[in-house]
Amino acid sequence: MTIQQVVLENWQRDADTYRNDLVAFGQGQWIVKDTGALIEFQPHQMDILTTMFTRGGALPSWAVYDRLTPEGQQAMDECPSGQFPWKTMIWSEPKKSGKSEIGGLVGLWATMSEPGVNEGFFIANDQEQSQGRGYARIGDHLNPSSPSYNPAIASFIRTRVRGSRAPTRIDFKAGDFIRAIPTDFAGESGANPTISVWDELWAYTRENLMRLWEEFTTPPTRPNPARFVTTYAGFRDESELLWTLYQRTVRHGVRIHKDLELYASKAGDMVAFWSHTPRMPWQTDEYYRLEKAQLRPPAYRRLHENKWTRSEAAFIDPEKWDALPRYQSPTPRQIEAIPVYVGGDASHKRDSTAGVAVGWHRDAYPFVVRYRIWRPEPDRPVIPEDTLGPWIEDINEQFLVKRIGCDPNHMETLLYRLQQKGLPVEEYTQSVDKLTSAADALYTFTKQGILVLPPKTPDLDAHVYAAMAKETPRGWRIMKDLARKHIDGAVALAMALALARQYGPQDVDSNVTFFFLGADDDGGWK
Question: What is the pLDDT of residues 336-346, one digit of tens each?
């Protein structure tokens, strides 16, 4: 029996089941082009698809239901009849995990199974311009010359599909259609999607793409509209849209599956499966060994570990920085007499200026005691003598300052004044040795996960994210990638940590204790 005969027989027997069971539809009708056989779901794929696409009122898979957390079970229980539990669904896994197959399957099934006349849209990423891989897979099912031709599905289609590339619109005999659109926003304002499938949302970085996403919000005129996203992780400094969705689900949402990395937003409108784990049989150790040898470390992390990186080689891994422990502020009496080390960095008047003071926790953890960043205004430049200078003097009054390191460039007057007042200042010149020592201190303490931060440091975080590493034959240094971004906070922190490491391990104070903020589900610190 050919595969075409199999799918026809399956349709005659199971058509009624397919409407409310995406997994059954896939197992009975979705032919993988590379094998010419029906798709064989991995266990995690069946769990995620069942959780995302079981309509309210339909009998759930009790085995899957039992693997959900109480929050996940509540979302399923309270789902209105005939609707999916969430309106926006994100599927993010490492490269070669079958996301394109899943995207094509979801778009076809939703368009065919929803009541009424439906509109399905496939929006390609900004690099492909027109047809994404998921849409192309649907075209393969309608092309008689394709190994994955499916006559059962083709019987519902009016559009003739010939050749290697499907037309940009596929019309059903009943009036439904599936359309592939480019990322050009113009002309899409009249869309009324039942389902929109988005490929590689990390690439949506330009303003017109943000507008396209906003235009395709789930319409209230549809009883059960949905958006489905398949994507890798993106770039922290560019992929703002995807980062916002990631924040709302993975970082600040609730985990809804006991075993899998499935998160729902607290607002209850979106869900994300965001996994770093390779689960497909072809994702072998040998495959990853070859990929690691060919790709730059940031590219490997993003593609094969599904971790956020920067568009250029970042100095500090954003996920490492975000995972650093943070403390609830110790009482002033505990820290007023501890030894601290201060780094100060200033640039020309149109750039920012920063000061950071660090000390040693009793468990030999360096921690940020105080920091301050001054940003210039168009009519009010930052003058180090009026900002950083008084701040350092205030730190000196509160704590036992052991060393102060400042770059003499742009701060000759300030250094002189502090020295005249008897403060332990030294010139932290931009020599290769000193810059390498500073960069290495910040990088090492962050990589080891032992640098302790205050509860909230949004401006310092931004400076660390913007910092790049430039390697030289003699060492490396911290630099910024764009003139409009600031890294002075990161530089000042690196100087302070270098001084603390050089002079201060013996200054660990046994009287300093912290209450750390709670650990998250993955064992990191918030």
Answer: 667 899 999 98
pLDDT > 70? residue 368 = yes
For 89-116, write each residue's pLDDT tens digit: 999 999 999 999 999 999 999 999 999 9
Residue 516: what residue type? F
Contacts 24+ apart (CB under 8 A), 96-101: 96/280, 96/282, 96/283, 96/287, 97/275, 97/278, 97/279, 97/280, 97/283, 98/45, 98/280, 99/230, 99/231, 100/132, 100/133, 100/134, 100/137, 100/199, 100/230, 101/30, 101/32, 101/39, 101/134, 101/137
pLDDT (tens digit per residue) in 266-320 = 999 999 999 999 999 999 999 999 998 776 677 789 999 999 987 667 788 888 8
Average pLDDT score, the chain? 87
Average pLDDT over residues 149-164: 93
Number of other residues whose CB lies within 10 A of the CB of residue 262: 27
Beta bridge partners of 515: 328
* 510 vs 180: CA distance, rounded Å: 64
Name the CA radius of gyration of the chain, rounded: 28
Is residue 11 within 8 Å of residue 26, measured between CB atoms? no
Give the per-residue pLDDT at 367.
Answer: 92
Whether 479 contacts 312, CB under 8 Å: no
Render the burial of 24-34: b for 16+ CB within 10 Å, e for the rest. Answer: ebbbbbbbbee
pLDDT at 358 exceeding the cut of 60: yes
Confidence at residue 258, expressed as pLDDT on a 0 to 100 scale: 97
Residue 66, token pair as written in the block? 């039992």
List of residues 6+ apart from 77 with CB closer than 8 A: none
The kind and range of the H/E element at 73 are helix 70-77
Residue 495 main-chain phi, psi, to 5 deg: -60, -45
Kind of pairing between the strands at 37-38 and 467-472: unpaired
Same CATH topology for 3-274 and 322-516: the answer is no
Distance, CA of 35 to CA of 148 (rounded, Å): 8
In this structure, CATH architecture of domain 322-516? 2-Layer Sandwich (3.30)
Strand partners, 88: 227, 270
Report residue 521's pLDDT band, with 50, 70 and 90 as the boundaries: very low
Q: Give the Cα separation of 10 and 63 in Å (integer).
A: 24
Q: Where are the domains of the chain?
A: 3-274, 322-516
In this predicted structure, what is the pLDDT of residue 186?
Answer: 56
- 425 pairs with which residues across the strands? 404
Confidence of residue 323 (pLDDT cuts 50, 70, 90): very high
Name the architecture of domain 3-274.
3-Layer(aba) Sandwich (3.40)
Cβ-contact 10, 126 below 8 angstroms:
no
Cα separations in angstroms, 290 against 293, 300, 370:
5, 11, 45
Q: Is 116 left (phi over 0), alpha (psi -120 to 50) or beta?
A: left
